[in-house]
């Protein structure tokens, strides 16, 4: 009954507290369904990420072992190339994992407020068409943000050529004008509009509810950060211990190092899956903030039309 009410009230004006409560409740009440589909669609990406992270951390630890080599420069060069290849692969896989996570979450959020009974009894065959469509939308969003990042970097470089103080003065204005773009993702994923039409409308909604966007994003980022910190701590601890063992030439410590090496791989998997769970809260917050902003923006638009008439 609670899920049905949440679905019915997705597009509605809310106070900041209600928006936060709805955002957290969606993840909490549908966690089993979210984890089920994440295990099917996101976990394979996390496995690849964990393997690459395991190899990457091994390459970094190997730098500590080249001091005894007779050709330090050559080995360091090979390790550097290996590190760059692994890092590049990591970035590509992260884009794939991020795209699929965004597509999955907003597909489930949309179905939750469209299906009778919310997400109860949802099967993959019912989810698949919307999910595949949202994957392509997610790729367009990533391409847009990469292009936007390039333009901003170019602009910052030009301003830095004038004076570093100009850059510092520009940063607050950049933050103010970029924050409304936080609603672009939920707007594009949940609505059937062209990209540029969605960009314009979501940017307008973001400015109208700028304070709410900032507050929801801040609170949800803190929640996500705490979850991700808890998920990443075991990997960092195991990696540090593994590094200590790698500095020893004792046979017993080398054997223990192998065990920690394997454990590091599993902890990396836990890290990436935990990071994905943390992001759910940010996406949920922006989704429900969009539902609020959409209604508020429409009311302002109607009021303006009445005043004009």
From TrEMBL:
Keywords: Membrane, Transmembrane, Transmembrane helix. The chain crosses the membrane at residues 37-64, 84-109, 138-159, 165-186, 207-238, 258-283. This is Glycerophosphoryl diester phosphodiesterase membrane domain-containing protein. It comes from bioreactor metagenome.
């Amino acid at each position: 009954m609670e899920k049905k009410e949440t679905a019915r009230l997705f597009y509605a004006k809310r106070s900041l507290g209600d928006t936060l409560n709805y955002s957290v409740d969606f993840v909490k009440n549908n966690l089993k369904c979210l984890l089920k589909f994440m295990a099917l669609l996101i976990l394979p990406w996390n496995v690849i990420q964990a393997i690459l992270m395991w190899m990457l951390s091994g390459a970094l630890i190997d730098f500590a072992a080249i001091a005894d080599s007779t050709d330090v420069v050559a080995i360091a060069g090979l390790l550097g190339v290996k590190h760059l290849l692994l890092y590049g692969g990591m970035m590509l896989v992260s884009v794939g994992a991020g795209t699929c996570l965004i597509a999955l979450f907003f597909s489930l959020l949309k179905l939750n407020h469209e299906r009778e009974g919310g997400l109860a009894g949802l099967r993959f065959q019912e989810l698949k068409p919307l999910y595949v469509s949202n994957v392509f939308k997610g790729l367009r969003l990533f391409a847009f943000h990469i292009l936007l990042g390039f333009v901003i970097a170019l602009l910052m470089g030009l301003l830095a050529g004038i004076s570093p103080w100009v850059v510092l003065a520009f940063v607050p204005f950049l933050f103010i004008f970029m924050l409304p773009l936080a609603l672009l993702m939920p707007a594009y994923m949940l609505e059937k509009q062209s990209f540029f039409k969605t960009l314009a409308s979501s940017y307008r909604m973001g400015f109208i509810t700028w304070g709410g966007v900032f507050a929801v994003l801040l609170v949800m980022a803190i929640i996500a950060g705490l979850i991700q910190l808890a998920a990443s701590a075991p990997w960092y601890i195991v990696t540090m211990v593994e590094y200590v063992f790698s500095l020893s030439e004792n046979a017993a410590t080398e054997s223990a190092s192998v065990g920690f090496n394997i454990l590091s791989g599993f902890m990396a998997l836990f890290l990436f899956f935990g990071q994905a769970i943390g992001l759910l809260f940010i996406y949920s917050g922006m989704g429900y903030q969009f539902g609020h902003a959409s209604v508020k923006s429409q009311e302002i638009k109607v009021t303006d039309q009445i005043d004009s008439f």
